[in-house]
Structure formats: C-alpha cells, structure tokens
Amino acid sequence: MDENKRFQEMALRAAYTGRTQFTRFLEPASEAQAAHLARQAGAEVCFFGGYEGAERKLAAFYADVPPQEYPVAALQIRWNEQFSTAGHRDLLGSLMALGVERDTTGDICMGRAPGTAYLFCVSEMADYLVANWTSAGRTAIRVRRAEALDIAPPEGSTKRVTVQQLRLDAVVAAGYRLSRAEAQRLIAAGLVKRNHLEELRADIRLEAGDLLSVRGYGRLKLMELEGETRRGRIALTVFLYGK
C-alpha cells in the first residue's frame, strides 16, 4: 500500500475510533507528510524512536490523549573487543542478511562501553532477534533486551561561526567553510537537505535544531543561536558530525 494512503487510513481510524494507531519505523523525511495527513483527518500524531534524539521513529496517530507506551523494544548487542569489532554497517548488514525488514528496526547506536551497541526495533521482533542474531560480519555477538541505555554521544565537533543572516546559504557556507557562491550552487543542484528534506531555497531562514546535510560534505546541526556580535553578525553554535 502507498505510504500516504496508509497514513491517511490510520489517521482516520484514530480520529473516528479513538484508538491509537502505530506505524512501523519511518524514514525521517516521512514525518512531515504523516503530520500533514493527520491534520487533514482531524487526528493528532506524535513520533518516538526509543530514545531522545532518535532519527528513525514510529508515528502514533491518536484522537485526544497521546500514548504513554509505544511498541518499541531496546536490544543491547555485545561482542568481545579483544578478538574483533562490529561497526554500524556490520550490524545493519547482518540484520538485512537475516531477512529483517528495514521498517521493523530503528536506529543502531554505539554504546559508551567498548564492545556494545543498541538496536531499537518493533516489540514483536525482539524475541526473534535475541534468539537468531548471533553475528555481525565475522564478529560473534550476543543480543539481549536492554535493561538500561548507555548510548555514546555522536562523533563530531562543535564550533562557533557567525553569519550576516540566518539564511540557508549563509549557514552552509560558514559551517562547511565554503564561499557563499559555492553554497548557493550546492543548494540549487539539490545537494542540500534540511531536516532530511531537499531544500532548494537558498534564502530560507533556519532555526535552532535544524539538521543540514550536504552531499559530499556530511551533516551539520544548528545547536544554538547566541545572538548578535559587536559587529552586528549572528553567532551560532553548530555541531559537525564525523570523526
């Protein structure tokens, strides 16, 4: 079934029956459309991915009161760092090799402790993965339901930049150390996304919390607006993802 049609039917069902309807895990770009279709149907919608800051989330369509619980399970993955290691790509690849459908799983996060990671999945998949997910590439893994979360912060660096205006092209240029003209070229070419959606308007105003991705340059998050400098520019704190 077409994703939009499914969203529409779930939103209408929630509005008319009063029973919350949960999707599986969505790509981030689908959230805006889910919210739009919920409004059209007279329903509400909220999103949850298992932890604060999740990228892939379930949508919950509801009528009046948002759900207190979601059908999301957290699994802890462990391996022996002395013999081998498992990265994000290894873990995701091994899940696909098991025949697991991508929309049944959310984010994979590395843990603070060496040799640990976490996977968020729909609750109905948890027991299957605990019993059958035993390796990631050449690395033997052990999987269990997580009793608590100890997720490592994302790799990257924070820096302070200043811009004349909070325009997309200005922030892209400052954040990635590009010329304004190069930033505008990348935007016009469809290589820049704002909050997971392609953005072709170089002059759109950004807000704190916006996530930018530029093909070939990586991802950047606008963390904080610090106000005007003595020279009348706007100071920003941005986070650049990556090592």
Provide an overview of this structure:
The chain is an alpha+beta fold and 243 residues long. The protein has 3 domains: 60 residues, Ribosomal Protein S8, Chain: A, domain 1, CATH 3.30.1370; 74 residues, RRM (RNA recognition motif) domain (Alpha-Beta Plaits, 2-Layer Sandwich); 86 residues, Roll (Structural Genomics Hypothetical 15.5 Kd Protein In mrcA-pckA Intergenic Region, Chain A), CATH 3.10.290. It has 6 helices and 15 strands. The strands form 4 sheets. It has a 6-stranded antiparallel β-sheet with strand order 10-15-14-13-11-12. Strand 5 and strand 6 form a beta hairpin. Helix 1 packs across helix 2 and helix 5 crosses helix 6. The protein starts with a helix and ends with a strand. The mean pLDDT is 94.
Layout of secondary structure:
Elements: H1 3-17, E1 21-26, H2 31-41, E2 44-48, E3 57-62, E4 72-78, H3 88-97, E5 105-110, E6 116-122, H4 126-132, E7 135-136, E8 139-140, E9 142-145, E10 156-163, H5 168-176, H6 180-188, E11 192-194, E12 197-198, E13 211-214, E14 218-228, E15 234-241
Antiparallel strand pairs: 1-3, 2-3, 4-6, 4-9, 5-6, 7-8, 10-15, 11-12, 11-13, 13-14, 14-15
Looking at CATH, the homologous superfamily of the largest domain is: RNA-binding S4 domain
Number of helices: 6
Which shape, going by the Cα principal axes?
Answer: globular
Number of strands: 15
What's the Cα radius of gyration?
Answer: 21 Å
Q: If classified by CATH, what would the architecture of the largest domain be?
A: Roll
Indicate the CATH topology of the largest domain: Structural Genomics Hypothetical 15.5 Kd Protein In mrcA-pckA Intergenic Region, Chain A
CATH secondary-structure class of the largest domain = Alpha Beta
End-to-end distance, in Å?
40 Å
* Biggest pleated-sheet summary: 6 strands, antiparallel
Number of domain units:
3
